[in-house]
Amino acid sequence: MTAQDRPLGALATRTEIAAGRLTATEATEALIARISDLEPELRAWVHVDAEGARADAAALDAGPNRGPLHGVALGVKDLFAAAGLPWRSGSPIWKDRIAGFDAAPVALARRAGAIVLGKTVTTEFAGYKPSQTRNPVAPGRTPGGSSSGSAAAVAAGMVPLAFGTQTSGSVIRPASFCGVVGFKPSFDLIEPYGVTALARSFDTVGLFARDVPDVAFGIEALTGLALPLPTLAQAPCPMTLFRSAAWSKAEPDLLRAWDAFEADLIATGAQLHDTLPPSFVRALDPVLELHARIMAVEASEALAYEAEIAPDLLSAGLRAQIEEGRAVPPAQRHADRLALTRLRARAVSDLDPSAVWLTPSSCGAAPDFDASTGDPAFNRTWSLLGLPSCSVPLLSDDAGRPIGVQVVGAMGNDHGVLATANWLMQRLAGL
Amino acid sequence: MTAQDRPLGALATRTEIAAGRLTATEATEALIARISDLEPELRAWVHVDAEGARADAAALDAGPNRGPLHGVALGVKDLFAAAGLPWRSGSPIWKDRIAGFDAAPVALARRAGAIVLGKTVTTEFAGYKPSQTRNPVAPGRTPGGSSSGSAAAVAAGMVPLAFGTQTSGSVIRPASFCGVVGFKPSFDLIEPYGVTALARSFDTVGLFARDVPDVAFGIEALTGLALPLPTLAQAPCPMTLFRSAAWSKAEPDLLRAWDAFEADLIATGAQLHDTLPPSFVRALDPVLELHARIMAVEASEALAYEAEIAPDLLSAGLRAQIEEGRAVPPAQRHADRLALTRLRARAVSDLDPSAVWLTPSSCGAAPDFDASTGDPAFNRTWSLLGLPSCSVPLLSDDAGRPIGVQVVGAMGNDHGVLATANWLMQRLAGL
């Protein structure tokens, strides 16, 4: 599998179709062929809707331009409802469920002209149990979770864009492990109605693509946000490097790669600014535990129906997380909610709205396939705060397996995060 | 219809069943008979699941105590999924939909032993278009919306407890108009997964009952919060009277009733405290517009699928609200989200956690049936801030139609709000 034989990305597909050099049908057929070749090994898809995608492509080819994503194929994490397609949410409890409607993000994508190519594998209810999907760029390793199939399908060139969700680290971590770009927007930027809930205070719809311009293009098409990415000599936002409280979990290969990255960044002449005030960083101390506890409480309630009708069909790990959530006393729960409200407010009041900072996307490269989907320690804080973050494939371990650099920004600074991610790729990729 | 012939309330049902003086089957049959008598006139139900309720009651009667709600019947607003029952969300788009699962609150209620008696009428997607439900205590008037059926069914004694939801004023307003107790807990107290979304930053699951102890009992059973309501000589929380920026919309009958209420309250010897700092009240100035704008934006996205597949089946009012939401520029949207985060943080930082305040539940008594479901002006602020509020039937217009007093409290002060509501009913009802 080489980059050369991969089908076009999202922006290139749009450009070629608009210029009359490609039809939506041709673009779709190239992807279906690619999936046929690679899927038996990768197992990134729950269901490929080849016939539906062909019909949609033919309808688009026969009609006027439908929107910015006209003819662009989309992989949809199987946590999202998509009308007429399986909706299993990674659980045997829902193995026969067919969705009767489109989740809001799917409806918004279709309105913009996107073609839903199928449903990609999620871990069980977006939790920590590994799925069957393989990592296309790091053989024998996990693709990460929970958006395993979306990250792997994009990395393998099976689809140019794919939806994921992040509750702790489910977009940034698989992007890191699969060497693609993953973007978790500001909380609330993309409406999640129709997406199976895990922990609604954190659940955020995100997007995978092979490069930053494709991610920005997809987000712009879904939200109407203007996200221009001009080529820039200087970094577009005041930024700093931030190792964070998760640093104790950084693996040796990450430590080496990060040191080199910092040196390369300085060598570009990039100015570093003090974008994270020490008092704010100190306020983050309880965040890792707080995030895990609220997530357990909310999961125990969001999955109340499944836990009632089919507890034996939940994995032992998820059952334990649900039990942990149920055991949190009401007073602790209340204190946690107030702490969450206060921390999110501080993230608004204490940070420059244009600030970004750079931190690892994961503790290292992808762990062994059978071990776990990886640790979200570098992601939980930004999921709890609801801040935009983007993983770009700039680092690698000694065997060449990818590790992402995570660009995080102040609330609502989605454009700054993507512009910085794009600038980093232009300046540092391939060094 | 008199109070004497109404079936038992929730706590009384639980007590009688626990004492062996009543079976769940008998309790259920009494409610089914009541519904048979009154439903042709009131039209509070989308679907009464008499057979399912009878089967559940028989199973409960044959088994051990299942939980605090063992044998207590529940009306479920048709915005919530309940497995095997219609799930129309008040829209012709979903007239044939049958839910394949229980929404989380329904699952939590069933786990506690509740019997789902059926689905109650909601306005279209919980919006402002009047439903067909009649007001059982104010003939010719609206029962309010959007939880029209739940409020009317509880007021008519068809069911002791019923779920509602509030996005702007959809629990407190119908409770006010129907003369029942309506409680909207703190945002996030009850998980809403499986409830059709209207505006997720505000959508809150609430409960109706005929008295405060029944509401507290229901919330305790659903959440595990301890909500004891002892008889008290003095008010349980520091409280104040607050007319709010909505006061200009107060109708003449409310003005008279409120003056009398204030005098009666003072006459009890109740101490008033300065629980709402003037700087906090000033910060609330933009709230009414902010709430309406965020609600329009979020509704335009939550209903993206319906707007795409069947725009002609949406009411003109809802279509206009969706268009209004789509027209909000991204920069305004972003500013609104930051303003929301800041205001919620101020509600945590500026208020005594034990504070409550009293304000009207609605602008007056129920408007004419054909006019509207009423104005949520007195409710929007507390919905936006996510604060707990409870409507108690203490006031009336000159024709004797009910108007509620709304007890609102600081974030997480659900117990204080219910204890104050209970104290008010004990001290002032029937004066």
**SSE pattern of chain A, N- to C-terminal:** HHEHEHEHEHEEHEHHHHHHEHEEH
Radius of gyration computed on alpha carbons of chain A: 20 Å
Q: Largest chain interface and its two residue counts?
A: A-B, 45 and 45 residues
The helix count of chain A comes to 15
The CATH architecture of the largest domain in chain A would be Alpha-Beta Complex
Rounded mean pLDDT of chain A is 96
Number of domains of chain A: 3
Q: What spatial form of chain A do the alpha-carbon principal axes imply?
A: globular
- How far apart the termini of chain A lie comes to 23 Å
CATH superfamily of the largest domain in chain A: Amidase signature (AS) domain
Strand arrangement across the biggest beta sheet of chain A: 1-3-2-4-6-5-9-10-8-7
Structural class of chain A, by secondary structure, is: alpha/beta
Biggest β-sheet strands, sense, barrel of chain A: 10 strands, mixed
Q: How large a portion of the residues of chain A is in β-strands, by DSSP E?
A: 5-15%
CATH topology value of the largest domain in chain A: Amidase signature (AS) enzymes
Q: Name the poorly predicted regions of chain A.
A: none
Query: Tally of extended strands of chain A?
Result: 10
Quaternary organization: homodimer
Please write the CATH class name of the largest domain in chain A: Alpha Beta
Helix content of chain A: 25-40%
What does this entry show, briefly?
Two copies of one chain form a homodimer. Chain A has 431 residues and is an alpha/beta fold.
